[in-house]
Amino acid sequence: MKRVVTLDVNGEAREALVDTRDTLLVLLRDRLGLTGTKEGCGNGNCGSCTVLVAGEPVCACLMMACEADGARITTIEGVAQGNALHPVQQALIAHGGTQCGFCTPGIVLSAIALFEREPAPSNHAIRHAIAGNLCRCTGYDKIVKAIASVAGAKA
Amino acid sequence: MSQAPNRELEPEGPSRGDRDLAVVGKRLVRVDAGERVTGRAIYPADLVRPGMIVGAVKRSAEAHARIIDIDVSRARALKGVLAVVTAADFPVVAPGTLIPFGETGADAWASSVIAIARDKVLWRGQPVAAVAAVDAHVAEAALALIEVTYERLPVVADMRAAMAPDAPLLHPEWTPKGFDAGEAPPRNAGSRTLITRGDIAAAMLQAEVFAAIATISDTAHQGYIEPMACVAEADPQGNVTLWASTQGAFPTEIQTAVVCGLPQSKLRVIPLEVGGAFGGKINVHLEPYAVRLAQITGRPVKMVMSRADTLMGGSGPAAAAEIEVRVGARKDGRITSIEGRYLLDTGGIPGTPTTLVMQASAACYQTQALRLEGMDVCTNKPRTEAYRGPGGIQAAFAFEQAVDELALKLDMCPLELRRRNASVTGSTMPIGTPFPVIGLTGVIEAVARHACWTDPIAPGALPRGRGLALGYWRGTSMTSAAHVTMSGDGRPMVTMGAVDISGTRTAMAQVAAEEFGLAIEDVYVATGDTKSAGYSDVSAGSRVGRTMAAAVSEACRDALAQLRRRAAEKLQAPADTLDYGRGAFRVGGASISLGELMRTTAGEGAIIGKGVSSKLPLGMEIGAQVADVEVDPETGQVTVLRYTAFQDVGRALNPPAVEGQIEGSVVQGLGWALTEGFDYDAQARLRNASLLDYRIPTALDVPPIEVVLLETPVPGVPYGVRGVGEMPIVPPAAVIGNAIRRAIGVRLTHMPMTPERVRAALRMAGKG
Questions:
Q1: Euclidean distance between CA atoms A93 and B516, whole angstroms
Q2: Is there a contact between B276 and A136 if contact means CB atoms under 8 Å apart?
Q3: Hey, how many other C-beta atoms are within 10 angstroms of the C-beta on A112?
Q4: ipTM of the assembly?
């Protein structure tokens, strides 16, 4: 069955025709063409599909598209302001916190959500905030250092 | 003016070695980081082609069965289904169909059986059919309408069951290799390899103390976060384009071509970004179906593997192993004898190699004699594939724990025991050839001086211990190619034939910048495809950084030689009188920059520099790792408190990238050491087929990893580069095993060393 879903994505009003079986992840990637949000597992265990729903980090694969009707969504495409990168993005580049890049969009959004809650998180709080974002390439070291450097700048 | 007929123009640039480097070796950021942090990097699942449809795979519900019939009629009739294919739509590939692949070639029969079951299924999840449909929902419904009739056969779920005298044979037609005429090979054996050196019986007599261990390693998965995906598109003339997530465009091309019965020249494989691979994306899995469905429907077909399918038979995990090792030594610690028996679970198709595993196991140690026996054994589980230093971590889990036990028996510092036996340049390797230049003693001394070894273990309420293990991986070289053209404004544009899975684009931009005397911003590096780049082998075996550096520097020098001749004409001076540096040719008071040269001479013809590296000297990887752990005897929980990884990298082309490779590889090792293992039941059904229950490390599970880089360059290799990425995964399980032994006095011999197993070991030892 098909339905029209209307929602705010990265500050823009968007409309999509979805199958009622679609998840928010499918809506973003396949209906709206926003492929920056990735699918790593499809059932909420890897965090690659992390988006912000009203500022809260959510696995888009665990939310149905129809549930997102009227919602305010932030995806990775909405993080940079044009070509001006967010400090989290800049820090990941500067510290070598991205290798294959597949987990990176989810990590960026989890980190942004963390800074909304805590401007100067400890290293443990940082690891806790990204504990739901699995990374297989980096071993997390340089990711944590990158996010900590942003915390240091804000502190 | 001196004339030197036929004089070779001196190679430009610093690749001859001794000078200070301006770009190579610097801590530079990845050239492609920007697209990663913004989500603009394109992986195959992101690709959209006009009219694109979706492909999906029907997988076997049986672990061992004959396929009696596949009825696709109801699936074909479903609205929105455009095609359904089975093995009947593919040519038969006979066993022994050798294709160029890796160092020794590969049997394309295995490639075809991994991708498409024919007549028989050998593991749960093996592909038996595929559909193409207008969207994923229709495709899923169509799969449910495909009816496969199986004649069940008895299942062998593990190697013991497979080798039992009455075990069913997975491949009755297979003749096990490596056995003598009179010997009866164990049932379901693939092949046996024997490595012997010296008189083992005499050597054992000289030993005054022995340490022996028998270990089990469970199957583990490479755990790449991006599931396999590809898009195939065929044109009416029969040309096929395949966008893939792969470790090698050329290996994907040849496997897919043979399995589909398509001439290689008709297939163009374009590698896109790869979201992790680690050895698991060398073999093709979805690609043949995607190509065939695209050909039949005339529409582009996208296929993406679900995580569940990935874990339940759609991909090739790393081999489970049973390894026994016995080390004999004199009382002064000098090892005299090494014996080992290595069984690797190859899954449903024979052929998982054991040679490198055995060599890696004992390579770090000098010994009078050794006898190593390796064998792969078939079971009704997915055909196992490579995973970063394949077999290395399982072997080290046995060997490095045996050496540690020896240290305990001799009441000797474990580092001192390594020092007394360490292989050096010229030592005899297990296979009998002398070690090329290595710096193992340098690694050992670096450990000895480091705070991770000299600091006492921080005190805590629970038992704590420190573990040490050495690591070694041979790696490979094979062949890599690159070419360089010049942009209209004088900047070099490098195209390489190998896929970037470790930051190669950045490292090669550094190499090209170094050769041209330019800043890294002035160089452009791209990964080519199979129709635009020169043949390059798979990005695996820790070979790409080193061999591509050789190819790229050769291509740059070739381009510079052509540019020199042009500059000589412009400057009206003999070519060999010009100096080149920092992007310009100079002679007397005159100069011409690369930009000016290209602007004024582009119409004279393209500058195309070529570089091919083949069978470069190996860049063997050697290192050591140290960890402090805490064990909670009540829960069996092991916490890694501190971890330090030492590695001789020859020359770090890009230190943060090298550190990143080591940190990631270590954490993969820690995962397999503590929490990662496939849990099969007696019918070879996987019980933990999700990332919830197949537990890979999260940011909370691992401490910061300190990395210490050493540099003993490899002679005869540009910049002296060694491989990096595979060795670090080898020691961690042994490091943790040794640390646990020191903490609680009990040695774990089954990995992953889960809390349940720690508790069980304590109970068995009467301590819990």
A1: 25
A2: yes
A3: 23
A4: 0.98
